[in-house]
Amino acid sequence: MLHGSSWSPTEKKIARSVFDAALQSELADLIAQVRETAATLSTADELWDLQELLHRRRREISDKYDYRYPRLELLFVWLLRERRIALAQLQGLKPERLARIESVLAQALCDEERGAGAGQDDPAPR
User: What is the CA radius of gyration of the chain?
Assistant: First the structure.
């Protein structure tokens, strides 16, 4: 787990901007997926499957996008790993904070490569 120092007002502004942009991007992707799926619905089972998808994704997104400062560094690692954000968007954070994020990201990517080689899925960090 990442344990960072307190967040400066500038860092808080950067973090909020990156967080909001990533969340909006993920929601836009989900909306596009739902529109595509809804356009092809033809049975009640397909309708309930869509409802189930929405319920599951709402839970996942709510759990993932937790805007508490102690969790933000880990969230940014997760979003970088998913390519939902770019490291350049985090410029302006304290150098030691960026270094921690980059270090954990490098480890996660290394673990992911090892897991992929063994046919294992790496669960999302919590």
Answer: 17
Looking at residue 123, its pLDDT comes to 47
**Contact by Cβ (8 Å): 25, 84:** yes
Distance CA 111, CA 104 (A): 10
Is 38 in a helix, a strand, or coil? helix
- The two structure tokens encoding residue 126: 């919590």
Query: If we measure between CA atoms, which residue out of 68, 91, 83 comes closest to residue 11?
Result: 91
Contacts of 97 (CB under 8 A, 6+ apart): 4, 5, 11, 73
What CA–CA distance (Å, rounded) separates 103 from 116?
20
Q: What is the DSSP string of 58-108?
A: HHHHHHH----HHHHHHHHHHHHHTTSS-GGGGBTB-HHHHHHHHHHHHHH
In tens, the pLDDT along 83-96 reads 999 999 999 999 99
